[in-house]
Amino acid sequence: MTPPNDAALQEAPARAASATTSLKTLLAERDRLSTDCYYGVTTLQLKDADPTRYERFYSALRVGLFSAREVSKFVSASPGSREMGELLFGLLTPEGDPIGISQGLAGSLASMPIGVRWMIVNDYETNPGIREGDIFSGDDPYTMGAIHPGDCFTYLPIFYAGRLVAWATGMNHIMDVGSMIGGSWPPFSQDTFTDGFVMPLSKTGENYEYHAWWLQVWKRRTRAAVFNILDEKMRLSGCQMIERKVHEVIAEFGLDYFVEGTREIIEDGRRDVKRNIRALAVPGRARNAGFRTAGYTGVGVLFPLADREYLIHFPIESRVDGEAGLMIDTAGASPWGFHSYNGFPGALHGAAYLSVMDGYAHGSKINYGLMHHVQVGAEKGSVFNPDYEHAAASNPWATTVGVISGAINNASRGFLARGYLEECWTGEASWDGVQGSGILPNGQGWGFTNLQFVGGSAMGAFAYKDGLPTAWTNWNHRSDIGNAEEWEYVTPALYYIGRRLVPEYCGHGKFRGGVGHSATYVIRNPGRLAVNRGGGTMARGTVIANGMAGGYPAPGVFVKTYHETNMQKRMAAGEPFPSSPFEIDEFIGNGQLKVRRSTTWKQDTPPIEMKDGDIYTHASGAGGGWGDPLERLPKLVAEDIVNGWLGVETAREVYGVKFDAAAGGEGLDLEGTAKLRATIRKRRLQRGVPVKDWWRVERRRVMAGDFITTVRAMHQECMTFARYREEFTGFWGLEADFGFDDEGERT
Amino acid sequence: MNHSSIMIAIDAGGTMTDAYLTDEHGNFAVGKALTNRAAEHESYLEAVDDAAKVWGLDGATVHQRSILSVYTGTAMLNAMLMHKGKRVGMLVTRGFEHSTIQERGLTYLGQSYHEILHQRLHEHTPPLMDPRHVRGITERIESGSYYGLSPAGGVLVPLNEADVRRETAFLLDEGVEAIGIVFLFSYLNPAHERRAAEIAREVIAAQGRDIRVITSADLIPVIKENQRLKSVLIEAYTADEARKQLGAVECAARDAGYKSRLLTVTSYGSVVSIDTPRLYETIISGPVGGLMGGKRIADLKGLDSVVCCDMGGTSFDVGLIVGGGIGIVHEPDFAGHRLALPMVALDSIGAGAGSVIHVDPVTKNIELGPDSAGARVGVCYKHPEITVSDLDVALGYLNPDYFLGGKITLDRERALSILEERLAKPLGQDLFVAAEGVLEVMHTRMKELVYSMLLARGYEPSSYTLFMYGGGGPLHLWGVTEGIPLAGVATFPWAAAFSAFGATAAEYSHRYQAGASLVIPLKPNAEERANAAGHFNRVFADLETQAYRELAAEGFGREQVRFSYGMQARYLGLLESLGVSLPMGRIDDAGDLERAIQAFEDQYEKVYARGAKYREAGYFISEFFVEAFAEKPKPALPVQPLAAPEPAAAAYKTRRKVFHRRRWIDFEILEMAHLKPGNRVPGPAIIEDPMTTLVIPPGKAVEFDAHGLIWYRDAAATGERT
Known about the structure:
The structure holds two protein chains of two kinds.
Chain A: H1 23-33, H2 45-49, H3 51-72, H4 79-82, E1 87-92, E2 98-101, H5 111-121, H6 125-129, E3 135-138, H7 141-144, E4 151-160, E5 163-173, E6 202-206, E7 209-210, H8 212-221, H9 225-253, H10 255-280, E8 284-295, E9 309-320, E10 326-329, H11 345-360, H12 368-373, E11 374-377, H13 397-418, E12 432-439, E13 445-450, H14 484-490, E14 494-501, E15 517-523, E16 528-535, E17 558-565, H15 567-572, H16 581-589, E18 595-601, E19 608-609, E20 615-620, H17 634-642, H18 648-653, E21 658-659, E22 668-669, H19 670-687, H20 691-704, H21 709-718, H22 722-732
Parallel strand pairs in A: 10-11
Antiparallel strand pairs in A: 1-2, 1-5, 3-4, 3-6, 4-5, 6-7, 8-9, 9-10, 12-13, 12-16, 14-15, 15-20, 16-19, 17-18, 17-20, 21-22
Helix pairs in contact in A: 3-9, 8-9, 9-10, 11-13
Chain B: E1 6-12, E2 16-22, E3 28-34, H1 40-54, H2 59-64, E4 66-72, H3 75-82, E5 88-93, H4 99-102, H5 113-117, E6 134-137, E7 140-141, E8 155-157, H6 161-173, E9 178-182, H7 191-206, E10 212-215, H8 216-219, H9 225-255, E11 262-265, E12 271-273, H10 288-301, E13 305-311, E14 316-322, E15 325-326, E16 328-329, E17 333-334, E18 337-338, E19 343-344, E20 346-349, E21 355-359, E22 366-372, H11 388-395, H12 412-427, H13 431-455, E23 465-469, H14 473-481, E24 488-491, H15 498-505, E25 508-520, H16 526-553, E26 561-571, E27 578-581, H17 590-608, E28 619-630, E29 652-660, E30 663-671, E31 680-682, E32 685-688, E33 693-696, E34 700-704, E35 710-714
Parallel strand pairs in B: 1-4, 4-11, 5-6, 5-9, 9-10, 13-23, 23-24, 30-32
Antiparallel strand pairs in B: 1-2, 2-3, 7-8, 11-12, 13-14, 14-15, 14-20, 16-19, 17-18, 21-22, 24-35, 25-28, 26-27, 26-28, 29-30, 31-34, 32-33, 34-35
Helix pairs in contact in B: 1-9, 3-9, 6-7, 10-15, 11-12, 11-13, 12-13, 13-14
């Protein structure tokens, strides 16, 4: 098959669209005309001629999309979809460009054109044919831009008077993806063949009904067949609602208006974003950096190619030009590797566009216009654009969320420069999920993903106020962590013993980030069960939450497991049990909780077998800080202590605030605080060195390769890309062909 | 005229208290008073007095002749908005102490689409209580899960009674004035919550205090702990003060001569005594009345499929009557909180007569609502921003000299001038073309809401009759219904007071529910069928017992109570249940169980299409419910003799030019009070009333039927003004 974006298409002859015009021809025409403006729409003729009719037209289509999501999600079995709205519907042009989307997982907007383009370029129109009532399904990151295989898509072509006039599409994040590791974001995968059930778009049904074989595939190839099949039905149900709406709209407005109007809507959306960038940004460039670890050492028995430690690096550079153009560039990122965290362009673009929605799409029509205006860069061969089509891509969202945060923070610098203080905040995109698989005592196999902490995390600090706990997610504008009671119905053996916020678990600052949250489970009656963790940040690699304007970064995620405990006994006796990571430590410390063995993870875990009475606890979702903690109002620090979010020691060491815990609400010592802060400032000055001196010392370390092996390998690998090499050698004043002696292993 | 048997309905809003009186002949009178939030009984009496004047009576006479008084007040909402409720303490399952802070992460509730996209604007709703007063108790009940590995409602961790004593004492030391108890899965096994409540009451009594203790298992025993917690919190926070206010209103009514109990409106579409043990069920009553009125009219006319549309000052609310019944939702959002609360199913958009219109001068994007001018109407009166009413005045639909019967004069010239500046110029259009265009945008959105309510649930509009009411309803009826192939369209002379009419028309009923975790395989064996039947019958019997007890306390004997039954069911694995009525009430044999399952299958196919069904998964019953009805008087809608089609000469007031369909047309202007049953008014015409305005465009006509309903139809081919 031909890969997407076939350049040959650009040269295809343009023809007027009609019922007999092939999709290939339409696509070529669309590409030829879509230069600066979308599809050659230089003036919004319909809007200018009758803005209110145009608005009615747009309203009708948007209502159709929203309605599809709100109604069809009730068919879904996944708590992620039903309870938390982890789904998205879109209406696309015949060429695959989103005209509009519902609310929900908005980043998947980026995937939609890739899937349709793939079908067109690869002659699906001829074989298997595209007819009214046909259903196409798939989840392949490479061919259809799915962010990861856990995101499954259904496409329904919409015909009118025999002509394909649009596509309806629906996607959602499923419970289990059929990988060698249970769950929906396998943290260990060497290549596509260990990513799970990866399916390019395929015709899975006709006459609005799925083929029986397709439902059998879900049963045989995934561990959560009931959930996944119902999700598939949910997507089709929503697509049919969109189809019905399109028919109504065309009946009222006419086909010509529909075709021209949808192109205008896209161009209108593009202009909205451009206008907002012009109003809010400052021409120039802002940069951020993201990192992520992949601890694959030891997997060599089965996967020798993957047997190593990875430190994945990716710059996030936002460049605004004088014409309000925006480029979000990751040039210089690490090369792809034999690990789960590569992503094909759909994943990177989805993340980058989410950051644009956050900063520059207010009041706009969210559609392909945004994508058309904003450029996203990733070098071929890099972790976000592998030059090997079977590269693993089971969990790129773990890395690309760093792009969201970095680009949001880049945008905040522009807002600050323009004086839009209330728009400035520390972007956070932390997420986390426990997942796994096993065989229940009744012999039934099962797999699951608990998406609660994908549904909500803390906000980073603002330039004028603290971040809030459990308050947002960048990728789903309707944040929601669901109810524990719903989750327990679908995750037998994992019993919640706590869902709590974690004191001190935030980025400190003049304004602090929102505190993160934790969930703790006791395992009971599991049969055979192995759990693992998929997630978007880890302490070993702060990809997210760098903090801004002198604020601290948020702490990373951690997972702890405890084995062979006396929890069952305590619980049966009605004795208090620990309900958060730190309480577990206390209970162990005072002898109440007996534990024979425990594990601590600051990166994704391999599958860990869990037995009766074991405990799994994880924390995530903390927000980064804004500004120097020494500038925080002492009374806010005191309030945090009184409310239990901050300890006296941290208040003293980080914030320079003296507080007498014994005095309770009256414990703030303002005079002592002033003195302590003066001392800390003095200490800082004593510790500081001129940049020139620092550079000289550090350069010597660079020359000597004085880094741990993983870091050295990271630099060496990144230098295989010219951009990184130029910047690295340029900054440190090195020879152009500089390299380390013991090259990081290049796979 | 003799008004010997009167019903009173009072809707006390934040600003105004509206009174509606109806008598045994179907006559009605409307009155108003400024709401006195500190002493609602005073504004109650003033409003009744104001309405009584319409009939030449006084408030005391009306009360002496009244057989019913229904009151919806503001005390609960005010307590929430002003943060002036009780100091609440909460006992929760250990490990869930931060639930009131996290509140499930729902920081977008009540926001507009653009606010939702602009995530910096997301905020948690203030928790109404000190989060330090949420205390963890060692205990745990289990769900059994979909996989059925352990019994639903089994005890995983016994209740630690020492925890309860210690934490209750702590809360009392902190000065709490009410205590709520919300434990995980208590809807499957209430034993821990109830025992904890007993202990808490012992501790309270030992300290000589009198504090209410509320358990979620007794208030709203359904799945989802966050919503249960919010419901318990709001009951604890607001109910006592609201009960005092309602009690004061009842006393005032009785002092004035009223002899029955004061009733209030529930969110699920009924009226109950103000002594109801779950007063939080009455917190969302505003938009409910209209649906109840619609139900009354639907019953009267023998219609079982009706779409009820209420256009007020701020919003356009749509609800459905399906199969003669009103749909219920279970997790409504209210004032930033997501509650566990059965409520009539209503969808709403910010499109009311007072909705504010913004036009971006650069993008030409048009924003409608959600802000509303309220009583300030628009720039034609006292509001600084342009509104839908300004458009109506500018285009000629609304008479500037007859607003509220002429009590208020609207400034049309000012509206025209500001519309030119803020609407026509930015859009680059003629003022009247632009104004009509924006109205069309609003009508489209309203129409889409009607469509989506119907089609999204699998219902065909052509089998539905549409009722339109609310102060702005008759004014925009023509635009909303245009092009929808409905079975019929009707509005009412009393459209502006229709919600109050609905309150008098509602059934007296309580709704009881019990969460469940009952799995029924696709092909159950004899034992599984027996188990399921036992479960159904046991739960229904328990709920009936509770209903008899509560209704007895409200003055109803067993013989006065009748029941309807239902369940919330889903395919095993799904997370959303569908409400299904079970007329049989008991599962006596395999046939009954099959009929219950089939009722669910039919309903599911109707809503989600055949392809979405998944019988292979089996079935899961998540909730049972019983509605207990008691007798109460209903307003009369007597049949009146039909007059000739041609209205009396006195009905014709004048003619007015209206900009309609891009041209100025002469509309006949008539007075509602002079129109009689049997009259027929063809368009173009406008019927004016002090409370509302009905627009009949060319090609349409209205007919007043024997009950006084106004049917809006296509004009006949002959003899019509078009």
